[in-house]
Amino acid sequence: MTPDQLRALVRTIPDHPKPGIMFRDVTTLLLDPEGLAAAADALAATVTDKPDLIAAIDARGFIVGTALALRLGCGLLLVRKDGKLPGETIAEDYALEYGTDRLAMHVDACTPGARVLITDDLLATGGTALAAARLIRRAGGLVTGARFFIDLPDLGGGAKLRAEGIEPISLMDFAGD
Predict the structure, then answer these.
(1) So what's the pLDDT on residue 98?
(2) pTM of the predicted protein model
(3) What's the CATH code of the domain at 58?
């Protein structure tokens, strides 16, 4: 599938979750088996240096992360909303486009020196991905980059990740609206 065909599978929902927001809904891409496979294959093809772990961010990032982990032969590290993991965790607060939240991961999920690629469905302001990176680095892991199906470049998340030494790569962007 071409990038334009993948873009066409992403639904736009105006004024969600508040007026003026154009919500990019990846669930319509996930519903299409050919589109999902093509997106996962295309994203995996951008990884030139195999990481040890794929860090998947709660919740839609779990789908992206699982697909990449399977294609690349890596382990899957779950970065969840605080309070969702059963074992001992470390946590990070972060700012969202619409407020604040907190992410956590198991303290033993990432060994020191592990090479970790961060994944999520969408990059907006970068707050969630940066919180995941801080968690990984606190555990002694090395963040090798970040991968997303969608980037919203006008919200500046890519620039924030690059400022922290993390190169983001996305399959498609939705700029200007």
Answers:
(1) 66
(2) 0.96
(3) 3.40.50.2020
